[in-house]
Amino acid sequence: GENVEQHPSTLSVQEGDSAVIKCTYSDSASNYFPWYKQELGKGPQLIIDIRSNVGEKKDQRIAVTLNKTAKHFSLHITETQPEDSAVYFCAAGGGGFKTIFGAGTRLFVKA
Amino acid sequence: DTGVSQNPRHKITKRGQNVTFRCDPISEHNRLYWYRQTLGQGPEFLTYFQNEAQLEKSRLLSDRFSAERPKGSFSTLEIQRTEQGDSAMYLCASSLVGFQETQYFGPGTRLLVL
Fold first, then answer.
1. Which of A5, B43, B101, B106 could cross-link B92 (Cys pair, CB 3.0–4.6 Å)?
2. Are B105 and B89 a contacting pair, CB within 8 Å?
3. Nearest residue on chain B to A88, judged by CA atoms?
4. Whole-angstrom Cα distance, residue A69 to residue A81?
5. Helix (H, G, I), strand (E, B), or coil: what is residue A71?
6. From the candidates B30, B105, B110, B111, which should be mutated to test the interface with A, based on the most A CB atoms within 10 A?
7. What is the mean pLDDT of chain B?
8. d(Cα B88, Cα B39) in Å, to the nearest integer?
9. What are phi and psi of A103, to 5 degrees?
10. What is the interface size between A and B, counted as CB pairs within 8 Å?
11. Contact yes or no for B43 and A31 at CB 8 A
């Protein structure tokens, strides 16, 4: 069935460094790729998304890239801050109603 | 606050009891989704509604689970005869149907079955 793999499961960076999270998906019909940030005790919050007709999108310190041929997409956070510490989820959707989530990456930003 | 709301935020129950959760979506959104999230995992799809119609159910949704959205606005998720394995965060999301729609999540209801 459809699957989204996410790596790494845990990432620790020093404040100010960059963080990169990578995902691969299996359903070639997927054409929408959102990224969510989840803080302790809260629901996932959309931080950025990318659609299949573009290869890259940037919003301030956050950027996403998409390689549809390889079925890879990545989240890049530059100049990390302690408040970026959270669990980040990638997801793949658009093949109908269903959105499939990765298992999450726990990001620690050390001050 | 015009986001997705869920009640209660936390629920502790004994095995065998029934529980019901409520989700109020963003007002103009016509799709509503229920997900289950266990520790260390991403949200897993349970079911979704378009307006009042329940259009898809995951095989994760056993016969003990039922969801309704009677007037196409709020939704309820009921779990009958709860089991310890039902302990999880239950998330609701809503979206406006269209091309590659974005889902917006509520804060979730954390269920603990003793």
1. B106
2. no
3. B42
4. 33
5. coil
6. B105
7. 92
8. 7
9. -80, -10
10. 51
11. no
